[in-house]
Write a structure and sequence with these properties.
- With 74 residues, the protein is of the alpha+beta class.
- The chain contains 1 helix and 3 strands; from the N terminus they run E-E-E-H.
- It has a 3-stranded antiparallel β-sheet with strand order 1-2-3, covered by helices on one side.
- A hairpin with a 5-residue loop joins strand 1 and strand 2 (21-25).
Length: 74
């Protein structure tokens, strides 16, 4: 069975004074989402992060990118 790699992202959550929540991914500023509940925000945020990463990958030509690994500190 193939193991699935996961990545962690930090989401700044802002509660609306009217209703719902807004989330902004600190590592991917273009990934912003909303939800009426925290559960919905989490689901929507996962989807938008996936779309942003997919867009970045499509735009980067193989000879124009490198990969770097940074150890976790937290």
């Amino acid at each position: 069975m193939k193991s699935m790699n996961t990545r962690k992202f930090t989401i700044q959550v802002i509660k609306s004074s009217e209703h719902g929540y807004t989330g902004r991914c600190l590592e991917l500023p273009a990934a912003i989402s909303e939800g009426d509940t925290m559960k919905q925000l989490e689901s929507n945020t996962k989807e938008v992060i996936s779309l942003v990463l997919e867009s970045i990958e499509e735009k980067a030509k193989p000879d124009q990118k490198i990969f770097v690994e940074i150890p976790n500190w937290g």
